Every structure is written in structure tokens, then in C-alpha cells.
UniProtKB/TrEMBL annotation:
Belongs to the DapA family. It is an enzyme of class 4 (lyase). Catalyzes the condensation of (S)-aspartate-beta-semialdehyde [(S)-ASA] and pyruvate to 4-hydroxy-tetrahydrodipicolinate (HTPA). One of its GO terms (cellular component) is cytosol. Its EC number is 4.3.3.7. The record marks 50, 112 as: Part of a proton relay during catalysis. It catalyses: L-aspartate 4-semialdehyde + pyruvate = (2S,4S)-4-hydroxy-2,3,4,5-tetrahydrodipicolinate + H2O + H(+). Homotetramer; dimer of dimers. Pyruvate binds at residues 51, 207. It comes from Pseudoalteromonas ulvae. This is 4-hydroxy-tetrahydrodipicolinate synthase. The active site is at residues 138, 166. Transmembrane segments: none annotated.
Amino acid sequence: MIQQFDLSEYPLWTALITPFTEQDTIDFNGLAQLVAEQVQANNGILLLGSTGEGLALTMDEQQEIVRFVCNLAPNVPLMVAVGGFNLKQQVQWLEFCNDMPIHAYLLGSPLYAKPGIQGQTHWFDTLLANAAHPCMLYNVPGRSAVAIDPQVLANLSHHSTLWAMKEASGDIAKFEAFRSIAPELAIYSGDDALMPYFAQAGAKGLVSVAANAWPKQTAEFVRRSLAGTYPNLFSQWSRAINSLFTVANPIPVKVLMHKQGRIDCPDLRPPLTHTELTDHAAIDAANHTILSFN
């Protein structure tokens, strides 16, 4: 029987990395340790997002990861990413995941095609209709090449599975437009550094890259942001967190976690490579800042 969680009690979801071995296989021992760290910090876990290099994995590997983490039975909710460009394949992925003990989905916009309002509505309408768990839509035009139109939320409002949105455009005006058209929808920041601003605007939480490297510290950052108790928090954290995005995510965070001794190998799947990050001074300084934060 699937363990039940109140998703509203988890303001921080960690977009978990996928650790690899030097032989380019999944490091399941390392993955188990990373899951345990997130459980200890009481963070929700997102599997196979862009930070988890989900689209660089084969379908068999994706299924292996979901089965493996589900078998660990972590005492926090699990969210699984759904994304790509082939709608039938995404429905098949949902059919697989619907039978697993997970608790939510992250539904990404279709890649490359750049659909308008009708195409976006059809895409999400189909996924929401086939999802057995609550769904968080993902607005990330920097990756999908098109922003979700606020009207799409109105078109999808009849779906009981529509629970939340991850807003990662970096545009507070877009956040406000989503809130205006869907006031009951929980909106989460998809940008670590902007969390204090989004909290002031009514965000319910954060889907985080930084929480991979700093699980407990990022959880505290989110709590203080939501409580409004963050003197100097934005400037301190934004400088540190921006170091994780000097080259394509998740290159810096994997390099940092390797330097922390928390993963054995910093490797990524092509076309990404850890060799893109030639200067580690920024992430070293960020690590010192975050770990000394109180």
C-alpha cells in the first residue's frame, strides 16, 4: 500500500541528481545515500528531472531508478518527471509510474515544438487525464523554448490532478499572471536564488538544485524565506547559488558534490561533461558560505 503524504507540508523538493560510475552506469549505492540525505532533511524528492539528466537516460534506466528508489521506501514523498516531445511515449511512462508507490508528477512542456495555447492545452490535458497522482506543471521556457500561457491553466482547471506549478522563467510578472488566473494552484519557485522574492509574492515552496549539495541548509533557507525572516538572505544565498549555474546544470552541482565526497564520480551523460567547469573557485566559495550560514 502506498504511503500517504500531505504534499503541502513539503515546501522543498530536491531535483535529485543521478550519480554515475566511471563506467557510465548508474551508481545505485550512491543514489541510495543521496536519497537517505534528503530523507534526513525531510525534503521531497523529484526523480529524473533535468537536474537528474532524465532525458539522457534510456527508458530501462529510468524504470530502474524509479523501482530502486521506490523499493527504498523513503519516508518523504516522491515526484517523478514526465517530459519529452512524444505524447504517446509520455502516456506510456505515466502508465508505468501509475503502478509504482510514488506521490506526484512533474509535467514538463513539450520540447522543441513550441506549441501555442491549443497545443499546450492538449498536451497537458492528455497527461493530466492519464495521471493517477497529483501533478505539478513545469514552466521553463529556457529549456522548452516556449512559456506556458496563463490561459492554459484556465483551460485545465477542471482536472482534479492539477495540483501545482513550478515557475522557472525567472519572471515575477509571469508568476503573478499564473496566480491571478489560478489562485488555488500552489506555485513553487524553480529558481533557488529567487526564492525569497517568490515567497513574498505567495510561493508555496521551492524545487531546488542547491538542495542536492546542501540538503539541510536549503531546507532552512526555504523556511526562512517563507517566514519572511531573511535579513541579507537574498544577497548571501544568491551569490552562492548562482555559482551552480555558471555552466549548464547539473554540471556545477555534480562537481561540487564530488569535491564534497558525496558522490564518487562527477561524470554526466553527453552532451554534458564536467570538464566544462574549469574554474572551481566559485563553487568552493559558495560551499564555504552555505555551510557557515546560520
